[in-house]
Amino acid sequence: MDKHQNNVVLDFLESELKFTGEAPYGFELLNGATGEVSEGRYCRVQKVNYNNGFNVELGDICINVSEYEATELLNHAMCNETRALSELDEFYLSADTHRPINEDASKEWQWYPANGSDVGFHETDDGIENELLVITTFKEEPCYLRKDAKVFSCKGQFFVGYPFQATEISKDQYEVLKASNRATSATTEKTAAFGQIESFSLNAAPAEI
């Protein structure tokens, strides 16, 4: 089926996913029952074992939809999933409103996208030492002080943040960061909140990129 960029009506209450293409987000999810709207760069469609069979999630909004609407979302131009709906437990729509990733990985120091999320670095007015690490997912957009943050794995789960407070990320995003030019060598340590973890830090970008 051909790809489309149409807005997708999700239920009889006229809940709707809109692709605006406008930075910094690109998507709007309208809850037809409440009038609430969430904006984001990513939208997740997840198979569930109740009601109509699929949930569409963006921010704090979750809309239950049927296979028909899920198929419409799978065929959206902002979804690059190639497998059939029957083969998937979840898939993402990603609004490319940030900027193209540098094709030369050695020159990319600011933005690290993965399937359904990305990590970006933002210098503050206090200088590079207080650079912020910002994680953007379909659900939230937390930030951490880069010099204090770590990327770590624990019991098959993956996180970015502090050893006492962190945000879970996908294995795909973990691997992207681990392979990046910012990653330090991995070490093993024991923490009070997560127990034993394998972790690495993220270096500052060079003075001239």
How would you summarize the topology of this molecule?
Elements: E1 8-9, E2 16-19, E3 27-30, E4 37-40, E5 42-47, E6 54-58, E7 61-65, H1 67-74, E8 90-94, E9 111-114, E10 117-124, E11 127-137, E12 143-145, E13 150-154, E14 157-162, E15 165-169, H2 171-178, E16 187-191, E17 195-200
Antiparallel strand pairs: 1-2, 2-3, 3-4, 5-6, 5-8, 6-7, 9-10, 10-11, 11-12, 13-14, 13-17, 14-15, 16-17
Structure, described:
By secondary structure, this protein is mainly β. Helices cover 8% and strands 42% of the residues. It has two helices and 17 strands. The chain has helices at 67-74, 171-178, and strands at residues 8-9, 16-19, 27-30, 37-40, 42-47, 54-58, 61-65, 90-94, 111-114, 117-124, 127-137, 143-145, 150-154, 157-162, 165-169, 187-191, 195-200. The strands form four sheets. Strands 15-14-13-17-16 form a five-stranded antiparallel sheet. A four-stranded antiparallel sheet has the order 1-2-3-4. Strands 7-6-5-8 form a four-stranded antiparallel sheet. A hairpin with a 2-residue loop joins strand 14 (157-162) and strand 15. The protein is globular, with a radius of gyration of 18 Å. The N and C termini lie far apart (42 Å). The model has no long low-confidence stretch (mean pLDDT 90).
Key features of this structure:
209 residues; mainly beta; 5-stranded antiparallel β-sheet; 4-stranded antiparallel β-sheet; 17 strands; globular
**Overall number of strands:** 17
Mean pLDDT: 90
Low-confidence stretches: none
- Radius of gyration (CA) equals 18 Å
Query: N-to-C SSE series?
Result: EEEEEEEHEEEEEEEEHEE
Please report the distance between the alpha carbons of the first and last residues.
42 Å
Strand order of the largest sheet: 15-14-13-17-16
Strand content: 35-45%
State the helix count.
Answer: 2
Shape estimate: globular
What characterizes the major β-sheet? 5 strands, antiparallel
Which percent bin holds the helix content?
Answer: under 10%
Structural class assignment: mainly beta
